[in-house]
Amino acid sequence: MRNILCSMTLAFLLVACGNSVEDKYIASCMIGFGSSSSDAEKLCSCTYDKLESKFGKDKLEEWANQITPTNQKDANDFAEVGLHAAAQCAREMGFGK
């Protein structure tokens, strides 16, 4: 799980430059996982969708344009939701069976 959190954090920090927030998140997430496989892409895409569903696109774009979230609650919420989202996506995709 720590690798997932690190990957998500890296992904969000790298998102600020170019392309859409979603595209950059997925690309950076895949780098964080050290994989360019279609499974990694699906997992990262699923995780982003769940983050967007929880926080909304505007909030994710706002956070992507900051070096760090403006307060600790935002950072904690993002990490907690992101971990749960990644785990849920992994289960939905049949990983870990």
Radius of gyration: 12 Å
Average pLDDT works out at 79
Please indicate the percent range of residues in DSSP E strands (runs of 2 or more).
Answer: under 5%
Net shape: globular
Concise description?
With 97 residues, the protein is mainly α. It is built from 5 helices and no strands.
Could you list some keywords that capture this structure?
single chain; 97 residues; mainly alpha; 75% helix
Task: Compile the SSE list and pairings.
Blueprint: H1 2-14, H2 21-33, H3 38-55, H4 57-64, H5 72-92
Helix pairs in contact: 1-2, 1-5, 2-3, 3-4, 3-5
Task: Give a structural overview.
- The chain has 97 residues and is mainly alpha-helical.
- The chain has one domain.
- It is built from five helices and no strands.
- Helix 3 (38-55) crosses helix 4 (57-64) and helix 3 (38-55) crosses helix 5.
- The longest helix is centred in the C-terminal third of the chain and has 21 residues, at 72-92.
- The radius of gyration is 12 Å and the shape is globular.
- It starts with a helix and ends in a 5-residue tail after the last helix.
- The mean pLDDT is 79.
